[in-house]
Each structure stands twice: as structure tokens, then as C-alpha cells.
């Protein structure tokens, strides 16, 4: 366990219930205390002192032996549609972003899985400064808890679509899924969680083997290797065929359809010929396409196509029987495009 090897006290927020149970037993305490502590942590309580159903001596022992990881809100930007974008300060001085969005069915939390990113997708702001480090499962959970605290509402859905590549931080991400899905924790159903990846094919296969019921979203952005190599550099390692085979395996193994994200960029990947090619490539797949007019990033030349072009692109896929939606653009005017608020802060 990484946290215990360091001189620091372990962050109990990063523990699954099982890990917390062994920690509590190692302190010579009865196992059921772990469930009580777990519930408190997931209610957002930040001090052992506030865990009023624990004996005083245990609260003191915990304060000496462990900690509860925290983040502070440095800035919140609220857009007209109610979307809230947070700049969060981590204990080590780093900053990350998280977003909450209101939908008909409740609040969705969009969280980061790494500080920065090393995938290098051309139009993405998160990748501009490279990667700083992975986030821990506790830091992923804390983003959700901080937003719940700020909203005074429970989050019903979670999307791993903030900064970072979740499948590059595989173990912590899997642990996070187990923690948030736990009935004694915040208990968000697997079907209400979406994991978005730029396409680490072997990790998609591993994920499939876990047979979780999460939605897998794959950032496709191009229907052929020549173009995808240029937009999403990881394609050079895992070309389209390898990626799509992994996606088919995901569907066969889990029974879940895959979502393909396609950021439309004017003059680069938005031609109707490419729409037809995309239709051919996805013809035999159980999938759904989400078109995202690109969110312009400072100092980058990428612009969204006109609304007419977006609809024409959508129609071509629809005519070919592929379910396709255009992402409702939330958070306009608040630097909600991935990584932009943090960048502004770094300058
Ligand atoms: N690394 C993962 C998850 C984070 S990015 C992935 O690549 O999927 C989440 C989604 O936002 C991806 O589809 C990504 O391509 C998209 N995205 C990043 N920057 C964007 C921008 N400026 N405009 C529109 N979509 C963007």
C-alpha cells in the first residue's frame, strides 16, 4: 500500500471498505467500526472528531494513525445553465478541475483522474503542460464529495471525463469505481458511471473482463488511421482496428453498447465524406455516437463547424442506422473545455 510506505499517515478516503477493515483490525479494533467510519467519510465528514458514534479513544487513535484527504475550492464558475466548474486545490499544492452539471435525472459530476495528461490529443487543453501525476482513488472521491457539499445535493451520475486518461491510471480508477459503488458509500450505480478513454486497447479488454456495468465512452474523433494518428496520437500505438476489436470485445463480454465521442473540428474531421466513412467503420457495432462541436482552446486553431454542418454530419450517420446525438453544450462562457480553467490559473 503506497500510502503506508510513505511517512505520511494513510488517507482513509482512498480505502475500500475491505482495506479499511484490515486497517481497523490492525489497530486492534473490532471490524464493524470500519463500516461506521466508512459511512462518515462518504457523508463528507472531514475530522475523526465528528464521528460521534465512535468512542473518544478510538477517535484519538485514528487522528494519530490516519488522516482524511481534503481538497479546497479555489474558485467556482457558474454558467447560466447552472453548470458549475470548480478549480480545486490539492494538499500538495497542485490544482485540478471538476464540473457539476444538472440534468433532468439529477446532478452529474465530471471528475479528473490525473493532474494534466500525457496523451497529447491536439485540441485538448488538459494535455498542454503534460502530466504532473496520477490522482489517487481518494482524490477522485473527494472531487465528488466537495461538489456534493457545495451543491447541498447528492450526485446521481459520474463521468470520468475531466483531465487525464483513466485507463492510464487503471488501478486507482478501478478502486474508485468500487468505492463509489459501495452501498455504504455514496452508492452510485455502475450504470450511472461513464468512463471515457482515448483508446488504450489492452486496458479496454481488461476492463471488459471485470464485467462492470459502466458505460464505456471512446474518444474516436476520426474514422481512419491517417487522420486519427494526427488528432489522437495514442492511435499510433493502438490503431483503429485494434481499438475497435477491443470495443467489440467489450460489448460481447458486458452486453453494453459503447459510446463513440467525435469532436467535430471545422475543416479537419467534419467533411461529409468522413461522416460516410465513419458510418462504414461502425456499421456492425452495437454503439452510439456522440458528436461534440469542439470547444475552442486558447492559442489553438481549432474551431467548431457551423450548426448546419453538424446536423448534416449527424444525418448521414442516422441514415445508416447509427444512433447519434449532439452533445448539449453546457457551461458556455466559463472555460468549461477540459483543462482551461487550470491553465489560466497556472499562468
Ligand atoms: N482521456 C479521456 C477522458 C478525458 S477527455 C479521453 O480522451 O476520453 C473527455 C472527452 O473530452 C474526450 O472525448 C476528449 O476528446 C474531449 N475533449 C477534450 N478537449 C475538448 C475540446 N476542446 N472540445 C471538445 N471535446 C474535447
What does this structure look like?
By secondary structure, the protein is α/β, with parallel strands linked by helices. It has two domains: 12-65, DNA polymerase, domain 1; 85-334, TIM Barrel (Alpha-Beta Barrel), CATH 3.20.20.70. Helices cover 35% and strands 19% of the residues. The chain is built from twelve helices and twelve strands. The strands form two sheets. Strands 1-2-3-4-7-8-9-10-11-12 form a ten-stranded mixed β-sheet, with helices on both faces. α7 links the parallel β8 (193-197) and β9 (215-219). α7 (201-209) runs parallel beside α9 (240-254). The radius of gyration is 21 Å and the shape is globular. The two termini are 35 Å apart. Residues 1-6 have low confidence and may be disordered. The protein binds S-adenosyl-L-homocysteine (SAH). S-adenosyl-L-homocysteine (SAH) binds at residues 119, 121, 123-124, 161, 165, 196-198, 219, 261, 263, 292, 294-295, 297, 337-338.
Question: Can you describe this structure in just a few lines?
Answer:
The chain has 12 helices and 12 strands. The chain has helices at 2-5, 17-26, 32-42, 56-65, 137-151, 170-181, 201-209, 225-231, 240-254, 272-281, 307-319, 340-346; strands spanning 72-78, 84-89, 95-103, 106-110, 114-116, 131-134, 155-160, 193-197, 215-219, 258-264, 287-293, 324-326. α2 packs across α3 and α5 packs across α6 (170-181).
Amino acid at each position: 500500500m503506497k500510502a503506508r510506505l510513505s511517512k505520511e499517515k494513510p488517507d482513509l478516503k482512498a480505502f475500500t471498505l475491505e482495506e479499511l477493515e484490515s486497517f481497523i483490525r490492525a489497530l486492534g479494533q473490532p471490524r464493524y467500526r470500519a463500516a461506521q467510519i466508512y459511512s462518515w467519510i462518504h457523508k463528507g465528514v472531514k475530522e475523526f472528531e465528528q464521528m460521534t458514534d465512535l468512542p473518544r479513544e478510538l477517535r484519538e487513535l485514528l487522528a494519530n494513525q490516519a488522516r482524511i484527504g481534503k481538497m479546497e475550492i479555489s474558485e467556482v464558475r457558474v454558467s447560466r445553465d447552472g453548470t458549475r466548474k470548480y478549480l480545486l486545490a490539492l494538499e500538495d499544492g497542485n490544482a485540478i478541475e471538476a464540473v457539476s452539471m444538472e440534468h433532468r435525472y439529477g446532478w452529474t459530476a465530471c471528475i479528473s483522474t490525473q493532474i494534466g495528461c500525457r496523451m497529447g490529443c491536439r485540441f485538448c487543453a488538459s494535455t498542454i503542460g503534460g502530466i504532473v501525476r496520477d490522482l489517487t482513488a481518494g482524490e477522485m472521491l473527494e472531487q465528488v464529495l466537495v461538489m456534493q457539499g457545495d451543491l447541498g445535493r447528492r450526485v446521481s451520475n459520474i463521468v470520468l471525463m475531466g483531465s487525464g486518461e483513466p485507463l492510464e491510471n487503471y488501478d486507482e480508477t478501478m478502486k474508485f469505481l468500487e468505492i463509489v459503488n459501495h452501498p455504504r458509500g455514496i452508492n452510485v450505480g455502475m450504470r450511472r458511471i461513464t468512463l471515457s478513454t482515448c483508446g488504450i486497447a489492452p486496458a479496454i479488454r481488461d476492463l471488459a473482463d471485470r464485467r462492470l456495468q459502466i458505460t464505456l465512452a471512446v474518444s474516436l474523433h476520426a474514422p481512419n488511421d491517417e487522420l486519427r494518428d494526427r488528432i489522437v496520437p495514442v492511435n499510433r500505438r493502438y490503431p483503429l482496428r485494434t481499438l475497435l476489436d477491443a470495443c467489440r470485445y467489450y460489448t460481447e463480454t458486458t452486453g453494453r453498447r459503447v459510446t463513440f465521442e467525435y469532436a467535430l473540428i471545422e475543416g479537419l474531421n467534419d467533411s461529409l465524406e468522413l461522416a460516410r466513412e465513419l458510418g462504414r467503420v461502425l456499421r456492425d457495432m452495437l454503439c452510439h455516437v456522440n458528436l461534440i462541436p469542439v470547444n475552442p482552446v486558447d492559442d489553438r486553431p481549432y474551431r467548431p463547424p457551423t450548426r448546419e454542418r453538424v446536423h448534416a454530419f449527424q444525418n448521414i450517420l442516422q441514415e445508416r442506422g447509427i444512433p447519434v446525438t449532439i452533445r448539449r453544450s453546457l457551461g458556455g462562457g466559463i472555460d468549461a473545455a477540459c483543462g482551461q480553467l487550470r491553465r489560466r490559473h497556472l499562468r
